[in-house]
Amino acid sequence: MKIAIYPGSFDPPTMGHLDIIRRASKITDKLIVAILYNPNKTNPMFSIKDRKKMLNLIINDLDNVEVDFFEGLLVDYAVKKQAKIIVKGLRAISDFESEFQMALTNRKLAPQVETVFMMTNDKYSFLSSSVVKEIMEFGGCIDDLVPEKVKEFIGEKAKNESLF
Ligand code: PNS
Predict the structure, then answer these.
(1) Closest ligand 1 atom to the C-alpha of 9?
(2) What is the mean pLDDT of each run of 10 residues along the chain (164 residues)?
C-alpha cells in the first residue's frame, strides 16, 4: 500500500493546497494531510483544531485522504504512519532552495522515505497561506484563493471573534 504524507502549516488551506491534495490522492493509495504543530511558530491565525476542521471540509469527497497533525520531525511521523512518500508542492523557483534542503535533510534522516514534488497548477503559482492572510487582514476578497467551504468557515469565525 502506497501511503503518502502531505505536510504543511495550512494556515489556512488554499486552492493550491487542495489542488495538490486532489492530484496526490489519485496516485497514492492513502494520503495523509499532516498539519505541523509547531509551538515555536509565532502567531498562527488558526488553531490546529480549526485547520483540521477546514481541511476535513474540503477533503470529504476523497475516500483515501485523511487529516492529522504531527509534532517534531516529519520523517519520524512518516515512519510512524508507515508512509514511504512525502508529497510537496512546488510553486516557483523561490520554493526550490528550501525544499531542496528539506528533501535532502529528510533523506539523510530516513533514506527509505522518498520526497516527491508536484508542480503547482499555474493558476495558483502565486498563491500562499500568507498571501491569503494578508488579503484578509486588509479586508480584500479571497474568492477563488481558498475553497468555498474554507471561505464560509472563515466568514463564520470572523462573525464570532476577531481574527486579527
Ligand atoms: O506549509 P509549510 O509551513 O511550508 O510546511 C513546512 C513543513 C511542515 C513541511 C516543514 O516545516 C516540516 O517538515 N517541519 C517538520 C520539522 C522537520 O522535520 N524538520 C526537518 C526537515 S528540514
Answers:
(1) 1
(2) 97 98 98 92 89 98 98 97 98 91 98 97 94 93 96 90 74
Inter-residue contact 31 to 68 (CB < 8 Å): no
Q: Whole-structure pTM over 0.85, yes or no? A: yes
104 in ligand 1 pocket by Cβ < 6 Å?
A: no
CA 27 / ligand 1 centre spacing (Å): 22
Q: Whose CA is nearest to atom 22 of ligand 1?
A: 102
Contacts of 58 (CB under 8 A, 6+ apart): 13, 18, 21, 147, 149, 150
147 lines ligand 1 (CB under 6 A): no
Amino acid identity at 15: M
pLDDT given at position 116? 98
Query: Is residue 84 among the annotated active site residues?
Result: no
